[in-house]
Amino acid sequence: MFSTIAKKVREHQEQFPNAEIIRLGIGDVTLPLAPAVVSAMRQAVEEMGAGETFRGYGDEQGYDFLRQAIQGYYKGKNVSLDEQEIFISDGAKSDLGNILDIFEAENTVLIPNPVYPVYVDTNIMAGRKIIYMDGNEGNNFLPLPDESVKADIIYLCSPNNPTGALYNREQLECWVKYALSNGAVILFDSAYEIFIRSEGYPTSIYQIDGAKNCAIEFCSFSKTAGFTGTRCGYTIVPKELISDGVPLNRLWLRRQTTKFNGVPYIVQRGAEAVFSSAGQAQIRSSIEYYMQNARVISGVLSELGIWHTGGENAPYIWLKCPGGMSSWEFFDIMLEKAGVVGTPGAGFGDNGEGFFRLSAFGNSDSTALAMERIKSFAKSGL
Ligand code: PLP
Fold first, then answer.
1. Strand partners, 310
2. What are phi and psi of 107, to 5 degrees?
3. Which of 330, 307, 309 is CA-nearest to residue 318?
4. pLDDT tens, position by position, 336-355
C-alpha cells in the first residue's frame, strides 16, 4: 500500500510540479525529541566516551534503571510488575514479529479486520492459520469474542491503528474471560496508550483481573515520545502466564538472550528520561499538540457531515468515504482536488474498504491548511 501511495504522489508531482502536497497519511511523528531525552542521551554519550564509565554489552532484558522506570509508570496505573517481567526492545514492531518464535506453528490466530498490517503479515510468513474478526460500523470497529470461534493467539490493539477505536473495561473483560476459558494468549498492543483522554478506560490490559494469566503487552516509545527513529519499546510477559504448560516469561527470556543483544545504553538513558517529571511534562505537551490536530480534523469532518470515528483517544481519524466511494477512489480525489495524502482503509484489510485514515501527527499549520482545502473542495461538491 505505502509503495502505491508513494508512486501515485510522485506521478501527481510530475504532472503538477508546483502543487504543494500535505501528507496526513503517514503514521510517523513530526515533533523533535523532548529536551529531557536529548540531555540524558548527551550525558550517556559522554559516559560512553570515558574509560571509567564506558559500557559494552548491556543486560539482555534491558538496564535496571529503565525497567525500574517502567515498573514505576505501571505502578501509577495500579499495575504491579516484577522487573523480570519487563523486556526492553528496539521497538514494538520487532517484538510483535519476534514473539511468534515462542508459539507453536500450528496455533490458530485471531486478528481483527481492519488492523495494523504487521499482525497479519508476520503470521502469513510463519504459515499460521488466521481467522479474522470483523470490525465495522456496527460494532464501532471493536470486535468482541465469539465463543464458537476457537483461537490460540488473539491480537488486540487499543487505542487502535487504523480506526482510533478504544476498548472499554467491560469489553476487555470479555476478551480476558474468553482467553482464560479457551487457553488462548492475548497479544495486547498498547503503542497508543498515552493518547487515551477519556476517563475510566484501561490503559493497560493488566488493569483487567486475570490478564496476567493470559496476556502479553507491547508498548513503544515511538508515538509516546517521538522515538520512531531512535528506536525503543518494551514488552511485558508476566510470570503467571503459562501456555500449554510452558512459562512464557522464561521462554521469551531464552529467545531474547539467544537472538537479541539489547538496545544501546544511550537510547535506554533517553527512554528513562521520558519518565522523569520534566520528560513527562514535555512529552505530554507534544501529545496535546497532536490531539489538537485531531480535533481540527474531526471538527471539519463533522461540519461536512462525514461519518468518522477516532481522534478522541488516538491520533488517527477513520472516516467513511463519502458517496460510497472506494478507499482508493477517495485517495485519488483527495490528492487531485485538495493535494492531501491520506491512507486508504482497504490497505488495513477487507473491512477497511470504503474507509480512509487521516493522521494527526502532522505539523499543525499544514493540518489546518489540509482541512481548509478539503472543506472548500467538499463544499463545491464531492
Ligand atoms: N503497533 C502499532 C499499532 C503501530 O501503529 C506501530 C507503529 O506505527 C507499532 C506497533 C510499531 O511501533 P515501533 O515504532 O515501536 O516499532
1. 317
2. -60, 145
3. 309
4. 999 999 999 999 999 999 99
